[in-house]
Amino acid sequence: MLDVFPKQFQSRHDYAREWKARHNREVIGYLCTYAPEEIIYAAGILPVRVLGGHEPQDVAERHIPTMYCPFSRDVLAQGLLGRYDYLDGLVDGFTCVHMRNVFGSWTLNIPLKYHHYIYTPSDVRGARVKPYFAVQLGKFKESLEAFTGKAISDSSLDSAIDVYNRSRRLLRHIYELRKAENPPVTGAECIEMVVSSQVMDKAEHNKLLEAALAELQSRRPDRETGIRLMMVGSEVDDTEFVRMVESLGSTVVIDDHCTGSRYFWNEVAPATDRLLAIASRYMDRPPCPQKDVQDTRFRFEHIARLVKEYNVQGALLVQQKFCTPHEFDIPKLKAFLQEQFGIPSLFLEVDITIPLGQFRTRVEAFLEMLQLQAV
Amino acid sequence: MQNLYKTRPLKMWQKAKELRLKFFKDIQTAKENGKTLVLVDSGSFIELPAGLEGHACLEGHPYGATVGMDLDFARECAEEVEARGYARDLCVYTRNFWGSMFRNRYYFGGEFPRPDFCIKRSLCDTESKWLQVCCEHFNMPSFYIDFPLYPDRRTGKEDIEYLATQMSDCIEWMEKITGQKYNDDKFIHAAHNEFRTTSLWAEICTLNKAIPAPLDQKTIYTLYFPTVVSRYEDDTVHFYEELLAEVKDRVSDHIAALATERCRLWDDGIPPWYFLKLYRYLERYGAVVLGSIYTYTLHGAWEDQPDDSWGRATTPEERGMPLKTRDDALRALALWYLEKPIYPGMCLPGPKSEQLLRIIREWRIDGMMMHMNRGCEGLSLGAMEQRLALLKAGVPVTVYEGNSADKREFDENQVLDRLDAFMESLGMKKLDS
Ligand code: SF4
Ligand code: SF4
Question: Which end of chain B is more exposed for a tag (fewer CB within 10 A), N or C?
């Protein structure tokens, strides 16, 4: 049954077109997981995450500096190549510089009926950010109302929050299973569940997750767990790469990236002020490095909890080439994992396409070292 | 060399250089003079510590740029940072700063100064992460001011309040960690000076619309420096008042920065600091580079004028805003920061294209050269879209690759060849050949 998730992800463009025809409603893309999807969903619109296509391209270079990360160039290329021609609109927040270039280039070069920029504060744990972010969400809500010509009621916000929280809860349940000595689910399967949730109507996806959870609860793993790995990064949706890692005597038991746990980890705590509740959820979520600007490094605290809870033995630090926020965190994180937990890391720099052969040799050597250490 | 205009050295030049040196010396001697040393990024919120008993600001950007002019020192810094596992493509100012800090070597001599605390914000992704590591290195406290960045000028009540209350929190925080009583009068005066300096600087840059241009970009790099580092000080205001008077005289006497001015170019991004002679090279074609959005607006205050042209912003006091209490100053300062025209262009690509097209018209620019600076991702945002927008509007553009402060990524001959080809495409010939 778990096969449904990669299939859904691979056919995401067909799905969105079909959804649009079925509901006669709009589809809006978002570029970063700080986009408050609940509000879009409450407007009756399907929010879908815009991701790369991992295909070689030569269309983005005219629009985006070559020193910007391959993921951002890939995403823009997908737009320029017309892969997202069904999108009615696009939303972005105060994301990393590279993604803001993508958003700007997209709105300048690809026809859209609607686009909106939301200021998402950087200092997510700052004392004054939540009410201010809630005001920005209010403006976003108004702009969606103007776009659709329909008010977004409190009850539609409540149902959207409900559907989204349900998705988060189900994914958390599934992630819980990974704590087991022999997890019934692989890292690649988990990524497929998460990324497919980013491109589907959550109400429909929740049904798939419910069935998957039921299946996983009784699944007897037919593979050795091997070394328990954590995967850390920005966007890691290349499951072929993760499968390769897991075929070498290891299992990715937990992750900290935005096609994984960072996307769904915490819920909206329902409150009368719905926008403030949503704002709080996004400010309190496990931060991406771009948002982890305080000296406390909340991100590392969160990673430390995951390491302990999931009994991690080694970490794969997967970084998109030129990704500034992660480049800043990685040397510190590497030292943090080694010094605090004795956990070695393997750093892998990825481009639009991943050199599987070359990575395989390095991952093998890393796992051998971990196996020796385990002995 | 077929001079068309008279030229003469700028009288204020020496004073500008003195101010620059004083800034770096003040940092070095802050401790022995009993001053608090505050670490900040590119000169934002430097007025806030002005209410303390005495302070100096250690600023990352000017320091990183200065180190970039010394190839050996910069290389050693880069190597130190890379040896610690950091990527070679990180912001080059960060690498120059960190390299000095890790090696405990201040470029101007002695040990690297140890700041007492840090005030942070982030416009690009680098700023806050850069300072985060510094705070850890020195084990010093920091205060983060979350600056809301928009692609348009956003000065609603809630935006002003958001920034002003955070600055107010920062003042209370500084009182707590320094144990000092904050002096509101000094702060109000600093805010007043900030408005004067940044508005004067825009007025001076506006005078460069004249033909011949009284100032050129290479000179401007020295002249704009105090707007970045000390704009809240009396000396700085006096400097710009005198400079304005001198530049006005130059315009009325038709004194050119370049006596052979035949072609007016606009610049983009941070230059290769170790190769500023590229501006002298262009002069051989009679080409004067008038400025860049970076030098004019990083800390220049601009607004639309009644005749629709771009000129200096009226200060909050000129607009009738009160400046009597701490709260008045905080609100006026918040508004002033939110209005800075460089910020929309650091948010999304579109706004800067519009600014550039306007400048091309008003400063009567013949062509534009863009430095694709691999050392700074923040100011490279949208550069490719801006190039396309200019080309679409019929403005000749040339792009050269490089790095503002890492010579390892700069090919001098290739850049000069590119500039030659560009000048020839504009129909210009070397005047000395
Ligand atoms: S990989 Fe890094 S630089 Fe690229 S879009 Fe993601 S966070 Fe931004
Ligand atoms: S990347 Fe550019 S804008 Fe950002 S801190 Fe470095 S020099 Fe400044």
Answer: C
Nearest to B65, CA basis, from B257, B240, B276 = B276
Determine the atom of ligand 2 nearest the C-alpha atom of B346.
Answer: 3
pTM: 0.96
Close Cβ partners of A298 (under 8 Å, ≥ 6 residues apart)? A125, A286, A287, A292
Q: Which residues of A touch B120 (CB under 8 A)?
A: 293
The secondary structure element, H or E, covering residue A92 is strand A89-93
ipTM above 0.90, yes or no: yes
Q: Are A75 and A108 in contact (CB under 8 A)?
A: no
- Kindly indicate the confidence band of residue B99, based on its pLDDT and cuts at 50, 70 and 90: very high
As a whole number, the mean pLDDT across chain B is: 95
pLDDT average, residue stretch A41-64: 96
Q: How far is C-alpha B275 from the chain's CA centre?
A: 18
Query: CA-to-CA distance for B99 and B79, rounded, in angstroms?
Result: 8
Is residue B146 within 8 A of residue B165, CB to CB? The reply is no
**Yes or no, beta carbons of A293 and B347 under 8 Å apart:** no
Q: Which helix (H) or strand (E) holds B226?
A: helix B225-229
Give the strand order in the sheet containing A27-30: A46-49, A27-30, A89-93, A114-118
Chain A: residue whose CA lies nearest to B84: A331
Which among B132, B151, B384 has the least Cβ separation from residue A65?
A: B384
